[in-house]
Amino acid sequence: MRYIDLENNKPDEAWLKKSDKLTKRLIELHEEGNITGRNKLIDDNTSHWGEIKDWLLSLSHNKCWFSEARDIYSHMDVEHFRPKKEAKALDGTSRDGYWWLAFDYRNFRACGNVGNRKKGGWFPLKDGSLISTYDNQCEESETPFLLDPTDPYDVSLIAFDEQGNAIPAPGVSEWEAQRVEETIKRLKLNEHEALTEERKKVWQKMSREIEKYEAAKARCAAGGNPAAKQQACEHARNIREMTKAVEELSAVARWCVLFRNDPRLSRLAA
Fold first, then answer.
1. Distance in angstroms (rounded) separating the CA atoms of residues 149 and 47
2. Are residues 87 and 95 in contact, defined by beta-carbon separation less than 8 angstroms?
3. Which residues pair with 158 in a beta bridge?
4. To 10 degrees, what angle do helices 193-219 and 250-258 make?
5. pLDDT digit string (tens) for 113-166?
6. In this predicted model, what pLDDT tens digit does every residue of 217-263 receive, in sequence order?
7. β-pair partners for 144
8. Which of 7, 49, 69, 215 could connect to 73 by a Cys-Cys bridge, CB 3.0–4.6 Å?
9. Which pairs with CB-CB distance under 8 Å and at least 24 residues apart come from 119-122?
10. Alpha carbon of 86 to those of 34, 35, 50, 98, 99: distances in Å?
């Protein structure tokens, strides 16, 4: 998972104006008590969020915002972070969804349908959390389980190991670890074998680059070995490239570097 800066990016004005129009109609139907009509309006306009799927993907270099994968996590959906019709708690009970955010791009996430289908309307909150409703909108004060790729703090909570598994990052709190584990479970971030296998390959590739870099550095430590110095520079460049956000599963490559706990190597990570 890599941070997605949604706050400082917007779709085009024409799309935003249509969203405002649709949202106003949703509010009118809600105030009329016409819940069926409200849900039908959402269902009849699913193509609206589909219109900005390419724009959403451009913010992540065409990668799923949760898995950081492209094709191996299946084709991409526009996922509603906060469910639009009903929101399910950990025990399976449901409350009214965040229908007023149905056409709000800030509630959209690009997600491979492997995870999106498993998640469905799942959106539990921590016990005691404030719960946002249309009459008392306070999404920013909720305490959700689901990690949000548009929140840089949430992104920092998830790490990866040499077997290709997503895991809680070292040093996180018990609550933070619960969030990571539930997110992994509900989005099939470890259960989807093709994804974990590809992560494992990235880890192994990065490990080889690190070993070659360190061996070359050792040979040129005393100076007078320009060939070894050139090799060290090449492997350093490869390490930097693999950890850049544009690369698929770059967070896995980055954690492979960070787990070495070597400041020299960590400085190479993008």
1. 23
2. yes
3. 168
4. 50
5. 888 888 889 999 999 999 999 999 999 999 999 999 999 999 999 999 999 999
6. 888 877 778 888 889 889 999 999 999 999 999 999 999 999 998 88
7. 125
8. 69
9. 119/79, 119/146, 119/186, 119/187, 120/83, 120/88, 121/83, 121/85, 121/86, 121/87, 121/88, 121/94, 121/97, 122/83, 122/87, 122/88, 122/146, 122/186
10. 16, 12, 20, 7, 8
Per-residue pLDDT at 64: 95
Residue position matching structure tokens 């590739």: 205
Interatomic CA distance for residues 270 and 138, integer angstroms: 35
Reported as half-sphere exposure (CB side, CA atoms, 13 A), residue 226 has a value of 0
Of the candidates 157, 148, 151, 94, the residue with the CA atom closest to the CA atom of residue 120: 94
In which band, very low, low, confident or very high, does the pLDDT at 172 lie, cut at 50, 70 and 90?
very high
Mean pLDDT over each residue of the chain, to the nearest integer:
93
- Rounded to whole angstroms, the Cα distance separating 94 from 86 reads 6
Tokens of 39: 């849900």
Which two tokens mark 241?
A: 């490239």
Which SS3 state, helix, strand or coil, does residue 82 take?
A: coil
